[in-house]
Each structure stands twice: as C-alpha cells, then as structure tokens.
Amino acid sequence: MVSTPEHSIKVLDQEWVKSWKKKLRGSNPNNGGTSIIFRVSDHIRATDPNAYEPKVVSIGPYHHNKPHLKPMDQVKLLYFERILQRNKEITLDKYLQLIDGLKTQSQLSYSGDIKLGEREFSDMLLLDGCFIVELLLSHYFRSHEQQRENLILNNMTTLSLVEFDMLLLENQLPFVVLKGLLDLVVGDKISLIEIASKFFKGLIKGLEPLPKSDGSSSKTNKFYHLLHLFHACFIGKPIEEVIVADFPTESMLMTPCASDLMNVDVKFKQKTDRSFSWNISYEHGIIEIFPARLNSNSNSFYRNLITFEQYFFRNIRSRVMAYVMLMSCLIDSGKDLDLLRRERIVAYTLDYNEATLFFRKLCKDSIMDYDKSYLSQLQDLSMNVWELYDTKWIRYKAKLKHGYFRNPINSIYLITSAVLFIVLTILQTVYTVLSYYRSSK
C-alpha cells in the first residue's frame, strides 16, 4: 500500500470550505435550530396557496415588496412617525441602534434565503416592527387617548384583514424585535404579551389573554412571534402543561357524527369555561365543546395555526389539528351542521355547503402523530361515547329513530309492512297445508 507523504497534503482553500458550510446551512430549513420563522413547504401550500398569502400588509422579508401590498408602506411610515412622537426623549438614532444590534439574530430567525440586502433588511425590521407596536399601542389606549385619525382602527374591514395578516406563519417578526421596540417607547410599563393578547382577543369568542404576570415568566416569555403568542392564548393553557394519556387515539377518527350521537341521547353544550377552552369534556351524557365561528378568514386562520403546530410541536401535541379532526367527525352532513348550529357550537357566514365541508377539507393532506396529539386528551369522551353507542339496544333504537320514526309516514309504512308481512306469511302457511291435504287425497 502506497502511503501519501504528509508534505504532499495541500491546505484547503478556506473560501471553498466557507462556501460549503453556507450551502449545508441552507439545505437545513431550520438553520441548525436557530430558525423560528419558516416558509410554508410546497406540499402544504399546494392544498390552498392563498391561505398563506397576506392580503393587505407584509410583515417580515418573505412577502416584502410584493406589488399588492405596497399601498400599506405609506401607513407604515405614518405609524413610525407616531412612534417617534410617543416618546420624544428617544431619538431616531436609538431606534436604528436597536435594530442594528438585533439584525444578525433576526436574520438567523428566518429559514431559507432572504433576498434582501443588509440595509433593506434592517429598514424592513424597523418599519414593520414600529408599525406593529404602534398599532398595538393605539388599540390598547384608544379608550383613553384623544381621538385622532387612524386608518386601520377606524376601518373595521381593514382592521380585520390586518389582524389575520398578522397571524400568517410567513408574515412574522421575531418577538425580541417587537419587545425591544416597545421597551424603547414605554419602558417596562406595559408588556408586549399584554397588549398583543388584548389586540387579538376580538378575533375569537372566548379567547383568553395571558395574565399580565406572564410577561416576566421564563416559561411564557419565550414566544417566537405573535402567531406563537396567539396560539398560546387560543388553546387556553400552555402546551407543556398538558399530560398526554396512553390511549389509542386513532379510534377518535371513528367518532360518530353529531346526529347519531343525538339519537342515542348525547347532548351538546357550548363550552363557556375560558380558563381551558380546548378541554372538551363529556359528563352525564353531555359533550361540552369549544365553539367554532366560520367566516371568510377562517380557512386561512386554521391552516396557519395547524401548520405552525406541525413545525414547532411535532413531537408534543397538535391541539388545533386534533380539534379540527374531531369536528370533521361530528359534522358528516348538513344535518349535523344544523344540529351543532342550534346548540351554538358552530356559527357561520359561509355558504351552507362550504360550512358543512369546512373541517373535512382542513383535514385533507394533514399529518399528525395521534399518540402525541391532543386527541389523546379525549380519552374519557371517546370511551364513554363508544360504550354508550355500542350498546346494541341503543344502537337499534337509534337506527329506528333515525331511519323510520322521525317521519310519521315512514312509521306508518313500517307498521303496515310488518302487518302485511305477517298476513302473507300466514296465507302462505295455510296455502301450503291445503296443498298437502289435496295431494294426499
């Protein structure tokens, strides 16, 4: 074997090494674990591309400079001027220094290539961050401040569009940037968690803002961005505190629909306990469930929450996805939708057929780990409901009630058919006996 002399080994070109390290970092969508804001993957986006696109405002680099979002740039400048007026002791230089100090950390927060130069990226952080902070402050103080022209808060349509744009997975700024800007303006008088959770409270009935004290908690202070914060408010309880039961959760996919459950005397009730709004419960024949409000923004809203869970909580729990899957089981037809609407579990402004198929479409092409999902938290619900539903006489009662006795004409038809069948059976027996005696003679 020929050995290679040590003196023949060449020193590698360090620029070449650096270029390969850069390529390898780029091949990892998580950039070695530092990324907290992601582009939606192509296979997820393909199911509904518009669900992940902002309608009126771009936040962050992914949708920056898109033509249909440019009109909001003037509003961002206006809001930046208002930020400067809020605390005149803080000069423009202080804001620029803050952004410059957070620039590198923020760049690493985004996955994939950022097609912005360093100066343009810094300008984007400054304008988008100040826009959000001013919007949140204006909303928080609007009952106390003197009324002044506000192009967003005074227009409910625009406000609604901006709110939902701020909850898109690709339309986020790092939480640390927003917190830094807010601290410059108001110091430690108000927490970002407090004003942001109050801002989003109007989107969902029953949305529970996190307590003010959570702003100093090491556990709840580690939010990545506003969507992460909203998710924490939306599920009603920190995800880490949920204990997963050892339960075959695939059986939840076989949950009977709402009308079949009603036929076996299961009742539905809107959940009003806001302390843990997603804790669906079953007791004494009553299922308490968090209400769903379906409108033109709901599809994008749920899809972004589900995608966020799949990126960040893949190994923990997908609670929004589990809720969606349960609702897709309960709503199998328009009859189920009508039932849940009467019980105030579902309200909708969508087309009737669209509302009926809403949750089923959301489940299409979605992936979740059932053993680690929130479905495992529905152990008592599933076991008790199936124990009731699988009882033979109750199932038979439900079948008759569902198929025949609901309609009086069907009831009459069933009874008449039964009587006619008995009469024909008797006549056939008599005819057979008579035929036998005649043949004997």
TrEMBL record:
Regions crossing the membrane: 412-437
InterPro entries noted in UniProt: DUF247_pln
UniProt keyword annotations, A-Z: Membrane, Transmembrane, Transmembrane helix
Pfam families: DUF247
Protein name per Swiss-Prot or TrEMBL: Uncharacterized protein
Annotated organism of origin: Asparagus officinalis (Garden asparagus)
